[in-house]
Write a structure and sequence with these properties.
The protein folds into 3 domains: about 130 residues, Winged helix-like DNA-binding domain superfamily/Winged helix DNA-binding domain (Arc Repressor Mutant, subunit A), CATH 1.10.10.10; about 110 residues, 2-Layer Sandwich (Nucleotidyltransferase, domain 5); about 130 residues, 2-Layer Sandwich (Nucleotidyltransferase, domain 5), CATH 3.30.420.40. Strand 8 and strand 9 form a beta hairpin. About 40% of the residues lie in helices and about 20% in strands. By secondary structure, it is α/β, with parallel strands linked by helices. The strands form 4 sheets. The chain has a 5-stranded mixed sheet. The protein binds zinc ion. The site of zinc ion has 7 residues, from helix 11.
C-alpha cells in the first residue's frame, strides 16, 4: 500500500481519519493497495461500514461497542454535517444515534481534538441549563473531484461538506493516449490545489470500468483504454490516494449524499430513497441508488444503461452491438430530433422503473442541460403513460438532477468524502 501523504496544510485530515478508523478512510485507503478488493469483499458493497461481520448496526442506529467506534464516529460526523452552521447538541446527537451520552461525549471530544468539530455557541433548552451546540469544521479537510469526459475535463476542490471552494476546466481528448491524459489531468489537479493537501482525488469518467481496482475497461468510443490502471497511474503521479468510478455513479453518489449544489437546490434525495440518475452527454449511462446506497453490482459493472438493446438489428453502436438505446438516442440528438431522443430515453427509463421500482428518475449531462424542458417533458410523458397503463398511483417523477454541469465532478469528490460520514456507499 503506498504511503498516505501527510497533510501539513490542512490540520486534521487523512492522518486523523486513519488513526480513528473512520470507515471511509479505510475504504479509501484500502482502494490504494493491490489487495484493496479484498478489504471490502462482497459484503463491503452492501453492509454498513464498520459493522461487517457483526450483523449489527444496519440502518442509522448506533451501537455502543468499541469495535464499532468508527461507524459511530461516522454517524456523529454525519449529523454534525447535516446540522450545518446551526450545530447540534450532544444530547440530540445521543438521541439521533441511539448512542449513550457518554459515548457521544467521547466521540465529540476526539473530533474536537482533531479539529473536525467545534463549538457553535449555546442554545436554550427546556427546563435545563443552556446546551453547547457543536458543528462540523468544513475546512478541516478537502477532497478533489475530477471529471474526465470524452472532450473536456472539470476538476473541483470540495471542503468536508462537499461545497466547491475551487474549480478548473480544460479541453480534453480522451483518445490522446494514457500518458497525455494522465499528465494533463495531474497538471490540472496540481494547479487547482495551490497549497492544500486533500484527502485524495475522486476520478469520474465514462465506463465500463472496475471501480474496486480502478482499472478501465473498453470505454465506449475509446477501446484503447481497456485494462489501463488509471487509479494506480494517477496516484503515483500525484502522490495522493485516488478512487475511480463511472461518471454516472459519481453523480448519483453526489445526489444521494445531498451536499454542495444538491443541497443548495433544496433537493430531498438524500433520505435513503431509490432513484436512477440518467446521464446523457457524450454517451448515455445510469447511476443507480437503491435504499440510499450506490448500486455497483458484484463486478462494479451495474448501470450500463445505454447499451440495452431496444431495437433488434438497429443501427450499429460504438460498443459493437446494434440498436442500443445510446446509439438511438445520440443519433436522434445529432439529427436535432430532440423529442424523439427524449422518447427513446423515456423508454429506457420506463424499463428501469419497471425492473427496480424506484422512486424517482433524475436527468443530467450536457445534452439534457441544453434542453431540460424537452427531456423532462418527454421522459415524463412515458412515465405518465406507464402509470395509466398499470394503475396503482402517480407516475414516477422525472426531474433535472441537481448539480448542473459540475454534478459529476462534485460527486467524484464524494467518492472520498461520503465514506467519512458513512453515506452513500455500502
Ligand atoms: Zn451500445
Amino acid at each position: 500500500m503506498p504511503e498516505t501523504p501527510g497533510n501539513p496544510g490542512v490540520p486534521g485530515t487523512s492522518g486523523v481519519f486513519a488513526n480513528q478508523g473512520v470507515p471511509g478512510a479505510s475504504g479509501v485507503f484500502a482502494n490504494q493497495g493491490a489487495a484493496g478488493a479484498g478489504a471490502s469483499g462482497v459484503f463491503g458493497n452492501h453492509g454498513v461500514p464498520g459493522s461487517t461481520g457483526t450483523g449489527a448496526g444496519a440502518g442509522a442506529a448506533g451501537v455502543n461497542l468499541p469495535a464499532l467506534r468508527s461507524h459511530n464516529a461516522a454517524l456523529v460526523l454525519d449529523l454534525l454535517r447535516t446540522a450545518g452552521a446551526a450545530g447540534i447538541s450532544r444530547l440530540e446527537l445521543a438521541e439521533r444515534t441511539g448512542l449513550t451520552p457518554q459515548a457521544v461525549s467521547k466521540i465529540t471530544a476526539r473530533l474536537r481534538a482533531d479539529g473536525l468539530a467545534t463549538e457553535a455557541g449555546r442554545r436554550a433548552s427546556t427546563g435545563g441549563k443552556p446546551r453547547t451546540v457543536l458543528r462540523l469544521v468544513p475546512e478541516a479537510g478537502h477532497a478533489v473531484g475530477l471529471h474526465l469526459d470524452r472532450d473536456e475535463l472539470t476538476v473541483v476542490l470540495c471542503d468536508l461538506t462537499g461545497a466547491v471552494v475551487a474549480e478548473r476546466r480544460a479541453p480534453l481528448d480522451l483518445g490522446a493516449g494514457a500518458d497525455a491524459v494522465v499528465e494533463g489531468a495531474a497538471g490540472e489537479v496540481s494547479a487547482l490545489l495551490g497549497g492544500v493537501s486533500p484527502l485524495g482525488v475522486g476520478v469520474a469518467l465514462p465506463g465500463p470500468l472496475d471501480h474496486t481496482l480502478g482499472v478501465l475497461h473498453r470505454v465506449t468510443g475509446f477501446p484503447e483504454w481497456d485494462g489501463f490502471a488509471l487509479r494506480e497511474a494517477l496516484a503515483a503521479r500525484l502522490g495522493l490516494p485516488v478512487v475511480v468510478d463511472k461518471d454516472t455513479n459519481a453523480a448519483a453518489l453526489g445526489v444521494a449524499v445531498g451536499t454542495g449544489a444538491a443541497s443548495g437546490s433544496g433537493s430531498g434525495f438524500a433520505g435513503g430513497g431509490s432513484f436512477a440518475y440518467l446521464h446523457l452527454g457524450t454517451g448515455l449511462g445510469a447511476g443507480l441508488v437503491i435504499g440510499g446506497v450506490v448500486h455497483r453490482g458484484a463486478r462494479t459493472g451495474a448501470g450500463e444503461f445505454g447499451h440495452q438493446v431496444i431495437q433488434l438489428d438497429g443501427p450499429l453502436c460504438e460498443c459493437g452491438n446494434r440498436g442500443c438505446i445510446e446509439v438511438l438516442c445520440l443519433d436522434a440528438v445529432g439529427r436535432g430530433a430532440l423529442a424523439e431522443a427524449a422518447r427513446v430515453l423515456g423508454a429506457g427509463a420506463g424499463n428501469l422503473v419497471g425492473l427496480l421500482d424506484i422512486d424517482l428518475v433524475l436527468l443530467g449531462g450536457r445534452t439534457v442541460a441544453a434542453h431540460e424542458e424537452v427531456f423532462v417533458r418527454g421522459v415524463g410523458a412515458v412515465m405518465e403513460e406507464r402509470a395509466r397503463r398499470e394503475g396503482g398511483g402517480a407516475p414516477v417523477p422525472v426531474l433535472v438532477a441537481p448539480g448542473g454541469a459540475r454534478g459529476v465532478a462534485e460527486g467524484a469528490a464524494q467518492l472520498l468524502l461520503a465514506p467519512l460520514f458513512g453515506r452513500g456507499e455500502g
